[in-house]
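Data card: per-record layout.
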Amino acid sequence: MNRLADATSPYLLQHKDNPVDWWPWSEEAFAAARERDVPVLLSVGYAACHWCHVMAHESFEDSRVAAFVNEHFVCIKVDREERPDVDAVYMEATQAMTGHGGWPMTCFLTPTAEPFFCGTYFPPADRGGMPSFLRVCASVVQAWDERRDEIRSSAADVVRELQQMATTPAGGAVDADVLDAAAKRLSEEHDDEWGGFGSAPKFPPSMVLEFLLRHWARTGDGRSLDVVAATCDRMARGGIYDQLAGGFARYSVDAHWVVPHFEKMLYDNALLARVYAHWWRATGNPLARRIALETCDWMIAELRTAQGGFASALDADSEGEEGKFYVWSPDEVGPVAAEMFSVTASGTFEHGRSVLQLLTDPDPDAHAAERARLLTLRSERIRPARDDKVVAAWNGLAIAALADCGVLFERADLLDAASACATLLVDLHVVDGRLRRVSRDGVVGAPVGVLEDYGDVAEGLLALHQATGERRWLDAAGELLAATKRFADGAGGFFDTTDDAETLVRRPRDPTDNATPSGSAAVAAALLTYAALTGDAEARETATTAVGTVAAVLERFPRFAGWSAVAGEALVAGPLEVAVVDRPDLARIARLATSPGAVVVSSGDSPLLAGRPAGAAYVCQGFVCDAPTTDAEPLAARLGVRRQLGDEPRRAEAAPGA
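The structure for this 658-residue chain is written out next.
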C-alpha cells in the first residue's frame, strides 16, 4: 500500500514507490504494530542526503529485502527536516547505543515507540566490518521472537536514560569573563593554517564566527578577528564554495576545504551570507562583500520558490553520482581556467576530476570571463534535484541574511525578497496563532513548529523590521515570541516542543547548536532584540535567564554554544538602541555599527522613533539615553564603526548566471 503519495515531504515522496510498505510517522502505524505484535523499523533521513539515496537504492528498492521487512515489521519513514522532534529523540538513542550518529538513521522500536537497537547506514552485503541490512533485520526478528521480555526491559531502560537527559541545565551567568574565556578556548582550538576547528570532516562554524566578530567588536581582541578572517578566507577560496554560481556546500570531507559533501543547504548559506556581510561591515574586506552578495544571489536564483519562500536544499547527487554536476577535468575547463581554479591532471576528486578552488586573486576581468564561460558549460549538465519544501526556521534565517545584506549593500531587491518570504511565513505558516514548520507549493504541512522555528522566524522578522521600518514585522515577531511560553520548562529554559505537542518517549530538549542555532539560543537572541526595539523588560529577563542555562556548556564547549554566546555578547554590550530621524547620512553610519546586537531603526513605524525630533541620531543603552547627536564622528565612535567613513560600496551586480 502506498501511504506516502500525499506527503508534503520530497523525501517521503522519493520513497513512495518503494516495494517497502512504508507508513508515515503516525499513531496508526504504531497501532498496526501493536495489532500485529511486531517491532517497528524506523528509517530517518532527508531529501538531499547522499547515503540515504544509496541505502534506498541498495535495500529499500530491493524486492527481496522489502518482502522480509514487510512481513516482520511495521516500517515508518520520517523526514528529519519535517519532524526534528522525532529525529532528535531517536538520534540521542542512536548516539547513546553506538557512540555516533548520522543519516540515514535506522532504529528498531517496540510497538510503543521505545528504541532497542539503533544504527545508521547498513550495506546490502556484509563488508568493512558492517553487517548487511538484511542480516541486521533478521537478527532483530530472532531476538524479538526469542528474547522479547529482555528487549522490552532494555528499551524501557533506554527511555529512562533519555528522560533523565532532559533535565533542566544548571543556571549560571553569561558575563564578560565567560565570553572572554570562550573566545580564548576557541582561539586555541582554531586551525591557524587552514581555518575552522578540528580535523576532517570540517563544517562551516557559522555561529562561532558570528560570536567572535561580536567579541572582537566588544573587546578589540585582534585574535578573534584573525580567526574569523582565516576561516572565512579559506572557506571562500576552497571547494566547499561553488566558485561559479556561489553558495556553500554542507561540509568539507577533508581538513582543507577542498572536497565538499556536495549538498547545498539553505540554512548554511543563510547563516554564512550574514557572517560574511558582518565581516565586511567590520573590515571592508572586498572578498567578504563578494561572498555575501553571491551567496544571497545564489539563494534567490537556485532556492526561491514560486510563492516567495526558499527551498530547503539542492541534492548532492545528479545522474546517480555525488558531485557530478560540480567537478571538472583539465580538458573540460581549458588551460586558463585550469590554472585559475586549480584543476589538475591528477584531480582532487574521483576519476581524475577536480573541485574548483580559487586559491589566488586573478585578474578580475579574466575571472569574470572564465566564470561566465564555465557556468554556460555547466548549464548543459543535468542539475541536482531540489528539495522544495519550505522550512520555517531556515526561511527565517534567510530573511535575516537578506535583510542585513540588503541594507548594508543597498540592494533593494534583497529586501524585496526578504519581505516576500516573510509574507509567506506570516500568511501561510501561521495557523490559528501557531507556527507550522513546513509548506510545499503553497500548501502548509501538518507538522507543527518547534522552538527553532519560532526563534529563527522571529529573528528574521526583527531584522526585516529594522531594515524596512515596517511595523507589521515587529508585531508578528512579538506574537511568535509570546507563543514561546508554551515551550518553557518552568525553570528558565525551554523544551523544543510545546506543552501540548505529540507525546514522544521523551520531550526533546537540546540547548546546543548543531548545523543551526539551538532553539533555546535562537529564541533568547530574538527576545533580546525584541526587548531592545520595544522596551519589553520581561522579554529581556526571559532572554537573560535562557542564556544563563547554557553557561556551563559555553564555558566547556563553546564550539557548540556559539549562538548563545552571540546573545551573551549583546547582553554585555547593552545592546545599544539606535534611532535616526530624517538623517540618511547618520543612518548609514548607524548601519555600520559593530556594537554587539545593536538595533537600528531609521524609518517607518517603530517604537524607538516615537516622539524623536527630526534631524538627529539617538543612542540609548539600558534605559539611559545619550544626548542627541548630529555629528557623524562621535556617532561612529559610540557605535563601534570600524570602517573609514565615506568608504561605501557600489551597488553589486548579480553573480554570473544568477
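Known properties of this structure: The first strand starts at residue 22 and ends at 24. Confidence is low (pLDDT under 50) at residues 649-658.

See the next section for split statistics.
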